[in-house]
Amino acid sequence: MNKTFDIVIRGGLLYDGGLSEPFISDIGIADGRIRLIGRCAENNAGEIVDARGLAVCPGFIDTHSHSDFTAVADPRAEGKICQGITTEVNGNCGMSAAPLYNKASEKREEDLKELGISKRWNTFGEYFSVLEKKGIALNMAFLAGHGNLRGSVVGYDDKEPTTEEMQGMAVLLEKAIADGACGLSTGLIYPPGIYSRSEELICLSSKLRNRDLIYTSHMRSEGDRVVEAVNEVIRTGEETGVKVHVSHIKTAGERNWGRAEEVISLLDDARRRQVRITCDRYPYIASSTDLDSILPSWVFDGGNEEELRRLADEEERGKIALQMIEESRPEGYWDKVIVSSVSSEKNRWMEGKTIAQISMEIRKQEIDTVFSILLDERLRAGAIFLSMTEENLRRFLSLPYCMIGSDSSARSFDGPTKKGKPHPRGFGTFPRLLGKYVREGRIFSLSEAVHKSTGLAAQTFGLRGRGLLKVGFHADIVVFDPEKIADRSSFEDPFRMPAGVVHVFVNGIPGLREGRPSGRLSGQILKWNSD
Asked: Residue limits of the Amidohydrolase domain (predicted)?
């Protein structure tokens, strides 16, 4: 006898993603979608999943991810699935999988080689074909990176684009959107985005308006010039009318911790003026990016080879060091910069150690240690920066328009993506939010936390049919124990599974069973016009 439902999730406490009061119910799943919320007869189910005493909610949406290449290298995405994540938004910080032409393609070549990726592509359409053939464990939406547009057309020189180059970037953006990209991202502390003016970003962002797509920004500053940087994002929203979004909002550096309220006032005022501005944040007080991001911006002019040449030149290196010293970093700064990854085996011992510790070991000044690492690794070194305060973190997370983003690529517990000592947020973001900040810290209710992680995220990024427990919606669902959910990954040992996440379903297929990844690849590519 045919069963009405492939799976019935029995008797869980449902948090629907839309701020409704939780209620106990069954969920009937068939053909990858939610077909019934209510009482489901046992003889009508192919499989029954007992969720009594557990919370059931939409799968978490990671609004700020960097899995563009790791998804090709290893599609299992175990570090994300085990958190309850069912959907990622990728292509953030101006860095996306496509378009890749000319200098932009050359710059990402080492990334592809390091992950053992043999396939090459230029457009999102070609990239999506690679992903579809391989399969993916998670649903993935993609932003077009401004760095890719500029790198492909203008290159990595510090220059203003010509009229023809602006047209070239616009054509590439239109092609990316036609292929399914759901918006545009910028990374304005990284080359080549660091060389762009506001007018360039406004011009490109205006191309998003007629499809109501989103502009996201790793702002030009998250520290000393954070107020000006926030105003630049607001201006983009005001002048274009598009949705704008501040990535991983923060006020970094102790001397800027007191600016959080000013930043929040700017956002609130903009929203009162009908600027559609939102933000995301991860529940940690440490950030992570490339080690060379601490260098002066002029060092990046001309691309990687020019940067390496400057670092190797004694006179140029002296200029760089002098400027870094003049920036007056606070006492103990180098104790709060941790090397998270290197590419060479000879320097593997540095992973997990601070620049101060490494400097003592190799008997160099800290700035010289940074130069040595970057030269040895040919710039391929990552770092973690302990630069934020717990009070501000809680304040930003509590904003009603703040979503959750891990700012991490999807990794697995073995294979090509198990490298280095990456930021623990790649394995613990959502369990940490629900454990430390909701159950223990009570900064907001579980319903609000679920809404931020699901319904609000889907609405903001235009992910139709996702983010709610609703009949007809895709069956992206997480079952967890609200009394046990917690992160267990750390800076010393990041590759650890969280506690309390019991089952995860991606498009109705189990991605996690009884806390163990299933290896099923049931994710879909989510295009801006997907149903």
From this structure: 47-165, 422-508
